[in-house]
Design brief:
The chain is an all-alpha fold and 74 residues long. It is 64% helix and 0% strand. The protein has helices spanning 16-27, 31-39, 42-59, 64-71. The chain has one domain (13-71).
Length: 74
């Protein structure tokens, strides 16, 4: 049976980036890790991610509480 045909809700995809954010904060305190973060365009990727989250929240304001609640578990 196709997921689209099922009446059961599909679980949301895991937002891996939110699990990486605390680690990124710690890594960027070290000179070598900070250099890699900057060389790999980390700030641009973070800006893209935050823009995606803001757009997602604007499109679905009713899910805002769910998103914020999920961040408390990180």
């Amino acid at each position: 049976m196709d997921l689209e045909e099922s009446n059961k809700p599909v679980p949301p995809a895991t937002d891996v980036f939110k699990f990486l954010l605390p680690g990124l904060c710690h890594l960027t305190t070290e000179e070598a890790a900070r250099r890699v973060f900057l060389e790999e365009e980390g700030p641009a990727k973070l800006a893209q991610y935050f823009s995606h989250i803001v757009q997602k929240m604007a499109a679905h304001p009713d899910e805002l509480e769910l998103e914020v609640g999920g961040l408390n578990t990180v």
